[in-house]
Specification:
The complex is a heterodimer. By secondary structure, chain A is an alpha+beta fold. Chain A has two domains: 55 residues; 233 residues, no CATH class. Helix content of chain A is 44%, strand content 15%. In chain A, strands 1, 2, 3, 4, 5, 6, 7 and 8 form an eight-stranded mixed β-sheet that branches. The radius of gyration of chain A is 32 Å and the shape is rod-shaped. The termini of chain A are far apart. By secondary structure, chain B is mainly α. Chain B has nine helices and no strands. The chains are: A alpha+beta, B mainly alpha.
């Protein structure tokens, strides 16, 4: 049996233990909270910024334009493989065709910015479309039956158009860029850039066309349908088959001169190479707007058959 | 000290440990004997008394002065005792080897707390009554609580407490007669 003093002593000891235990618990909780709270706060801020779209200002535009394209029964870049198959079927060994959106886009601005670069470029790499330089000065294809050629093209027509979205060139942003106002992010008073789809093919049953008279130009059926459908809401990647009095022009120099002329007239033009077993031949590719197609600047001694790149 | 309320306030509000010590010195024996009437064992009652003061010293519940401090304290003690009884099967029996020590311990507390010889005899006679009768007799005749306060501590209505008190007194009288203790009829 304890005396009252003993009970008091026991009570004080137990109360002290209880207090120290509570203090330890509190310290532990504070420590855990101090380490966890900043992580949670950072996560919340990160998610907030991400969901708010601050981290991806340009991608939003791209995504919305892509979605629109899909909605209008357009198949996206999956058709790149199809186009490659098409060319191989016709014994046109076009290497790196899978990259055509990249290579074409890469080649075309080069011609636009400096048309001479097309002429003065390297002639060693004839396996790449991007390096659209000839291996020999004059290896033009023999003149062939244009109708037959276009018939072949029509057989290759895909059921769905290929649409490539022109993405802006992403450049690395440095701290100086941001300071100088060259940040890729939009400023408050800046309008967001407009992104247009690039039409490279369009479904059409028959894509043959007659060669237009000299000094004129004509659209292939698929291109015509695509223009009717998209009008000026898209850009068009087309091939311009050039004809003179003597038949289709395959001569590299003539085609580069014509590409340079078109470039000077505001077109985005390039000369591309196709290699096959019988040799290489060349054609002009154009990245054009609806208006540029409608009022095509034709040379008086040439006729132009314009068709979509992948039809 | 106004029934321990001011001591408790000093301890709770100002952290004055002497206030707590005063309460323990003043109320521990009475609370222990009261809890003995509930658990039927002075040692368990001692542990529960300590537990009551431990709760007072750590959780520091607020005394709202709706009743006397003693009533409040005894109510806390009673709740702790009943919680204890819920957790463990009530064992009013004590191992035989501990019985003499137990009786002597209880007697020591009685001697310390109950000064009058006559009251000690009554308290010993009470121990043979039902726990409920012991409680009500202890609270009213030894602790000097009113019927209302005793009812509050026991968590019963005043009417029920008075009824229990009546039957407890009757039972005590028959106990006196059995033990041959003289008493005055009131």
């Amino acid at each position: 049996m304890k005396k009252r003093e003993e009970m008091l002593r026991d009570l004080h000891r137990r109360m002290d233990e209880y207090e120290s235990e509570r203090r330890m618990k509190r310290a532990k909780v504070t420590k855990v909270a101090a380490s966890v709270t900043p992580v949670c706060a950072a996560a919340v801020v990160g998610v907030g910024l991400w969901k708010g779209g601050v981290l991806t200002p340009h991608n939003d535009q791209l995504i919305s334009s892509t979605v629109e394209s899909t909605a209008s029964d357009v198949i996206l870049s999956a058709d790149n493989d199809t186009s490659a198959d098409k060319h191989s079927t016709n014994n046109k060994t076009t290497n790196n065709r899978n990259d055509e959106s990249a290579t074409s886009d890469a080649a075309i601005p080069r011609a636009t910015e400096n048309s001479e670069s097309v002429i003065e470029g390297s002639k060693t790499d004839n396996t790449s479309v991007e390096a659209n330089m000839p291996t020999a000065d004059d290896k033009s294809m023999p003149a062939s039956d244009n109708n037959a050629n276009t018939n072949n093209e029509s057989q290759r027509a895909t059921e769905a158009p290929v649409v490539q979205t022109e993405a802006p060139v992403q450049q690395a942003t440095t701290a100086n860029d941001v300071q100088n106002g060259n940040s890729p992010f939009l400023k408050d008073d800046e309008e967001p850039p407009t992104y247009l789809n690039l039409i490279t093919s369009y479904p059409s049953g028959e894509d043959s066309m007659a060669v237009p008279p000299i000094g004129n130009y004509g659209f292939a059926h698929s291109l015509y349908l695509a223009m009717e459908d998209y009008k000026d809401t898209a850009n068009y990647l087309v091939i311009a088959d050039v004809f003179s009095e003597n038949g289709q022009v395959f001569n590299y120099d003539d085609l580069t001169a014509e590409a340079a002329r078109l470039s000077n007239n505001g077109y985005t033009a390039a000369v591309e190479t196709v290699n096959n077993q019988s040799g290489s031949y060349y054609f002009i590719s154009l990245n054009v707007t609806y208006e540029q197609l409608q009022s095509f600047v034709a040379r008086s001694d040439y006729a132009y058959a314009l068709r979509l790149y992948n039809n | 000290m106004d029934n321990g309320a001011s001591s408790y306030r000093r301890f709770r509000d100002n952290g004055d440990v002497t206030g707590f010590d005063e309460i323990v010195m003043e109320y521990s024996d009475g609370l222990m004997l009261y809890l003995t009437s509930i658990v039927g064992n002075i040692w368990t009652a001692e542990e529960l008394t300590e537990e009551t003061f431990f709760l007072l010293g750590t959780k520091k519940p607020k005394f709202k002065e709706k009743c006397s401090f003693k009533t409040w304290l005894y109510t806390i003690g009673r709740n702790i005792a009943f919680n204890y009884l819920k957790k463990t099967a009530r064992q009013s029996t004590v191992p035989i080897e501990n019985a003499p020590e137990l009786i002597s311990d209880e007697a020591a507390v009685e001697d310390a707390y109950i000064k009058k010889e006559q009251q000690i005899a009554v308290h010993r006679a009470m121990r043979k009554l039902k726990p409920e009768y012991q409680q009500v007799l202890w609270l009213i005749y030894f602790e000097g609580l009113s019927n209302k306060e005793a009812a509050k501590v026991m968590r019963k209505s005043v009417r029920s407490t008075e009824s229990i008190l009546y039957r407890a007194k009757k039972s005590l009288r028959s106990q006196f007669e059995m033990e041959g203790i003289d008493y005055e009829k009131t």
